[in-house]
Amino acid sequence: MYSPGIAPGRYSDFAEALYVSLVTLATLGYGDVVATAPALRLLSPLQALTGFVLFTASVSWLTQLYPALARRRTLALRTSLLRSSGGLEALIETGNPSVAAVLQELAAQLAQVRVDLGQNAESYYFVESTETTSLPLALEYLQQLSRRAAESSDASIAASGAILERSMQDF
Questions:
Q1: How far out from the chain centre does Cα 155 lie?
Q2: Which of 3, 28, 62, 166 could bridge to 32 as Cys pair (CB 3.0-4.6 Å)?
Q3: Pair 106, 163: CB distance under 8 Å
Q4: What is the DSSP letter of 35?
Q5: pLDDT digits (tens, 9 = 90+) for 83-118
Q6: What is the rounded distance in angstroms from the CA atom of residue 129 to the CA atom of residue 141?
Q7: Do residues 167 and 145 touch, judged by C-beta distance below 8 A?
Q8: What is the distance between the alpha carbons of residues 125 and 104, in angstroms, rounded to a whole number?
Q9: Alpha-carbon distances, residue 49 vs 19, 53, 54, 79 (angstroms)
Q10: In sequence order, which residues have a C-beta less than 8 Å from that of residue 34 and are 6 or more positions away?
C-alpha cells in the first residue's frame, strides 16, 4: 500500500522492491510504502531485525579493531623512540636497574599485541604510513635489545632480556 501522492507505476517492480527492502533493512521505516500481505508483514520486522544486528556487529567490530591497532602502533612508536634515543643500550651496559622494568613492559606490550593479532587477525592487513609506527621495523630492534640485555652481567636485566626474548619468540 502506498501513501497518497506516490504513483506506483512510476517505478519498476525491482526498484520498488529494492527500495522497500533497503529502507526496512536500515530500520528507517519511512512509511511511504507499507506491506499489506500477511507474509510480508511477518518478514518485514525480521528483515529490520537483521539490519539492526548487522549494524550492531559492524560497530562492535570497529570498536574492537581500533584499540588493537592503537596498541600495536604505540609499541612500535615507543620502540622507535627508544631506538632513536640510544639511551637504553647505554643503560644496559651500566647495569641500571630501571632497564629491567622497561624491558618487562616492552615484553608485556608485545604479548598484548600478540593477543590482539589473534583476536583481530584482520588488523594484520592494516599498513602503517610511517616507519615510526611500523611494528615489523620495531621487532628487529626489540630482538637486538633482548639479546643484548640477556647477556648483561646484571641478573635482573638479564632476566628481563630473557623475558623479552621469549616474548619475541612467542610472537
A1: 37
A2: 3
A3: no
A4: -
A5: 998 877 777 877 787 889 999 999 999 999 999 999
A6: 19
A7: no
A8: 27
A9: 17, 6, 9, 46
A10: 1, 2
